[in-house]
Q: What sequence folds into this?
């Protein structure tokens, strides 16, 4: 029998103001303005089903159909005669997206559509704090309401199975238990603001490579234990009003119209009463989508909204009897239920707040709790401002702003504090901060993004890449690819590849530019259609060509490549952007502190595209290695939402992981670097040493056709434990400026039976000399099982704050579901009799306490 998990009640840290957003008189809600809002909302919710049936009974077929598909880019139609307003949706998962035009993706160019830019959900996951999830959701919901949005398209809960996945930064890490525990308070907080959450993407969206066509084929146990628990929790405990379907296919059909995913599980077993809506431009058809539970279709690429699959084609099927009217009525009931639940026809609906000081400080609080101190040998950190006179800052992320990139998660904030600005705010004029741009001196570096005028739709400078079938460069194989810079490496060692890359380049200064072409294979370069270079070589060679360019003009660069090697286009341009190597290394030796802000950006972490490898882009590894040789105390501070390789890790004394930090990132980073905030974040993902160590790559299960999920339930850290692979940094790892001692583990019973719960307690003592917070993690092992199970499964966590010398108690509860696996024979959860081991630790690889108990059913 399935058992509900216990969830901790979350107290909201921020409360929204109560407003009176004037709308038409709501049905059956004739209350005076003096009625307390809580009582009013209770009455509103109590009358939802009655009002749904009343409205449904009055609707024509055309009116019903109008609710099941979009009538603009982000809305579905109003039915004015019944007081039903347009239902407005908005991206995104960590801030309400800027306003776009009603019928296009172009910006509407509003002057007042800025929103609080919150840290992405990877940072929330790294906090391991349910209160941070609630705080994140509360700000998001309040700001969505103030912008008159009815549905906010988030939070995202797909798991980080593959480090290359372009959207890992949007989600809650690699573990199903952690994601499930954090999504519930996030959803509840969003919806407390009279806004519907839309948990996404249901289900198995674990790669962007051919995200619409790739066919996900996990076995049933893997599906249930790994990829569905966060959605299940969002439905059963979070009561999410909407769920967004995934782009990918599931066993041959789009996930949005999968009978098994939608009708059998979501709306069947889980009893979901909300709305399933599509992402934009998914691969569905009318009959399967209608019969298998899709409720709203958004964004199909056709000329007219009437041509959507759930528009006129659905009406014709209803009229012909191929699709029963009851199927349509179920969809309309669900849509009306959401609209009435969030008060769309209620004049007393909450009005929300936006861009308040409290919201901005919430962004700072969340990232402060999510920053992870990966390494801190010789106590390099925290830095002491009083001992510093000269600080050297380097790295591509020192001044980069990340808010308006990444795809549908982009946000337009009032401001964004860069890491450099954060240091300047912290240190003021008393400390000299020198900024240098370092570049790998070996080989040819790609043309810097500073010169690139072309933007990918996700907001970052890009080269458009077209793949061809042969050397005639006329027969297109695929043309929806983009790459971050002017460097391409063939992925096929047995057959030549044929690609054409293009972008617009705007020189920063006029004058002679020395083009450099590092090549193995055949390549040609055209500028504004005129060929300026054409070379072919069997061994790598560098070719040069001088050209005059005007900084008042924009030039179209088109680089064509054929071969099984690689090509990089770079140049020496007037007004050099980068500091010579000898100069920045000399400065590093002389500086009182060196901070390198590197990692990824949204040129790498972004929707629609996966990374090609796990390396730091643009030669950062070489620069970091040389800096560490020049000054071993260099602090390496990395941004990014996915794992990267760190070949210099053994030489580095101090490494910090800051994710993408939201609008207050720089201030929060400086707080941690200088000890005003003691870091308490823990990694919600495993950081592998190499890409080859990860399951999808090791098992050859990453391609554009199908994902078989060959590792089964052994996702992330479970795979590394099973294979006895030591990662770079393990799941759950994160250091502090103080130390914690674990002791006195106790279980409420040594034997359990049936659906009894087990209470686990342990004492945690701060043995250091500064206050700090520790994330205590509980892992469970089924010592003898009839099916392969992970050696450790996360089944509890608690974050505790302690003063120096203080001892506190953490309490975590295990229940029958926590002990269970999905039994394919009974098609149900099964806790087998036998011995279980409880392990308490600071990470999956740092277990401090353990104790066993016996279970019988």
A:
């Amino acid at each position: 029998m399935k058992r509900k998990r216990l969830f901790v009640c979350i107290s909201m840290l921020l409360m929204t103001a109560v407003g009176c957003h004037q709308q038409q008189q709501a049905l059956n809600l004739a209350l005076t303005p003096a009625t307390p809002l809580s009582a009013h909302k209770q009455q509103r919710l109590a009358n939802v089903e009655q009002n749904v049936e009343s409205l449904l009974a009055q609707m024509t077929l055309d009116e019903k159909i109008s609710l099941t598909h979009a009538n603009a880019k982000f809305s579905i139609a109003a039915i004015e005669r019944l007081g039903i307003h347009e239902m407005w949706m908005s991206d995104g998962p960590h801030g309400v997206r800027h306003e776009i035009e009603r019928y296009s993706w172009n910006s509407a160019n509003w002057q007042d559509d800025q929103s609080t830019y919150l840290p992405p959900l990877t940072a929330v996951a790294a906090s391991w704090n349910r209160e941070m999830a609630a705080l994140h959701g509360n700000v998001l919901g309040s700001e969505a309401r103030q912008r008159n949005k009815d549905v906010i398209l988030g939070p995202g809960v797909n798991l980080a199975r593959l480090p290359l996945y372009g959207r890992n930064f949007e989600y809650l890490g690699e573990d199903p238990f952690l994601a499930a525990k954090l999504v519930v308070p996030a959803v509840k907080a969003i919806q407390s603001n009279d806004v519907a959450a839309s948990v996404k993407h249901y289900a198995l969206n674990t790669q962007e490579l051919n995200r619409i066509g790739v066919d996900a084929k996990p076995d049933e146990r893997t599906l249930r234990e790994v990829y569905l628990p966060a959605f299940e929790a969002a439905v059963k405990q979070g009561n999410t009003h909407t769920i967004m379907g995934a782009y990918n296919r599931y066993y041959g059909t789009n996930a949005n119209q999968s009978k098994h995913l939608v009708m059998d599980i979501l709306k069947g077993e889980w009893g979901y009463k909300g709305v399933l809506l599509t992402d934009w431009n998914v691969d569905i058809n009318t009959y399967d989508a209608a019969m298998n539970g899709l409720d709203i279709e958004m964004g199909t690429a056709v000329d007219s909204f009437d041509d959507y699959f759930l528009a006129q084609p659905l009406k014709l099927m209803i009229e012909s009897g191929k699709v029963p009217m009851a199927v349509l009525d179920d969809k309309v009931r669900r849509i009306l239920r959401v609209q009435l639940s969030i008060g769309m026809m209620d004049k007393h609906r909450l009005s929300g707040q936006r861009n308040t000081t409290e919201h901005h400080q919430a962004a700072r609080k969340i990232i402060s709790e999510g920053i992870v101190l990966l390494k801190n040998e010789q106590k390099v950190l925290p830095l002491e401002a009083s001992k510093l006179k000269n600080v050297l800052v380097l790295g591509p992320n020192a001044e980069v702003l990340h808010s308006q990139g990444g795809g549908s998660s982009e946000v337009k904030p009032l401001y964004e504090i860069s890491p450099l600005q954060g240091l300047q705010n912290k240190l003021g004029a008393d400390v000299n901060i020198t900024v240098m741009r370092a570049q790998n001196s070996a080989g040819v570096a790609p043309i810097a993004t500073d010169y690139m005028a072309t933007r990918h739709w996700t907001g970052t400078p890009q080269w458009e890449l077209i793949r061809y079938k042969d050397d005639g460069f006329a027969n297109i194989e695929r043309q929806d690819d983009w790459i971050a810079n002017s460097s391409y490496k063939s992925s096929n060692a047995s057959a030549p590849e044929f690609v054409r890359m293009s972008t617009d380049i705007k020189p920063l200064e006029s004058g002679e530019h020395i083009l450099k072409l590092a090549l193995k294979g055949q390549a040609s370069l055209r500028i504004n259609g005129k060929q300026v270079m054409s070379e072919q070589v069997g061994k790598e060679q560098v070719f040069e060509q001088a050209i005059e360019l005007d900084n008042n003009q924009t030039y179209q660069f088109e680089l064509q490549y054929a071969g099984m090697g690689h090509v990089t286009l770079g140049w020496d341009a007037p007004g050099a952007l980068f500091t010579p190597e000898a100069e920045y290394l000399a400065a590093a030796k002389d500086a009182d502190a060196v901070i390198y802000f590197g990692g990824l950006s949204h040129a790498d972490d972004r929707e629609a595209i996966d990374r090609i490898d796990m390396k730091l882009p643009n030669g950062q590894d070489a620069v970091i290695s040389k800096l560490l040789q020049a000054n071993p105390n260099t602090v390496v501070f990395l941004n990014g939402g996915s794992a990267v390789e760190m070949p210099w890790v053994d030489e580095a004394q101090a490494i910090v992981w800051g994710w993408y930090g939201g609008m207050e990132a720089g201030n929060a980073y400086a707080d941690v670097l200088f000890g005003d905030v003691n870091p308490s974040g823990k990694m919600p993902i495993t950081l592998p040493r190499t890409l080859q160590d990860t399951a999808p790559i090791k098992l050859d299960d990453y391609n554009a056709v199908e994902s078989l999920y060959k590792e089964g339930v052994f996702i992330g850290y479970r795979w590394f434990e099973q294979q006895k692979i030591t990662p770079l940094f393990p799941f759950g790892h994160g250091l502090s400026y103080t130390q914690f001692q674990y002791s006195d583990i106790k279980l409420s019973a040594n034997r359990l039976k049936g659906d009894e719960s087990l209470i686990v307690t342990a004492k945690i003592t701060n043995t250091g000399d500064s206050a700090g917070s520790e994330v205590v993690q509980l892992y469970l092992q089924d010592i003898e099982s009839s099916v392969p199970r992970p050696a450790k499964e996360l089944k509890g966590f608690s974050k505790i704050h302690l003063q120096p010398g203080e001892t506190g108690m953490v309490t975590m509860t295990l229940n029958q579901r926590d002990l269970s696996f999905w039994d394919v024979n009974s098609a149900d959860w099964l806790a087998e009799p036998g011995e279980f081991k409880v392990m308490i630790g600071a990470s999956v690889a740092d277990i401090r306490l353990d104790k066993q108990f016996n279970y019988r059913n």
Notes: Confidence is low (pLDDT under 50) at residues 1-35.
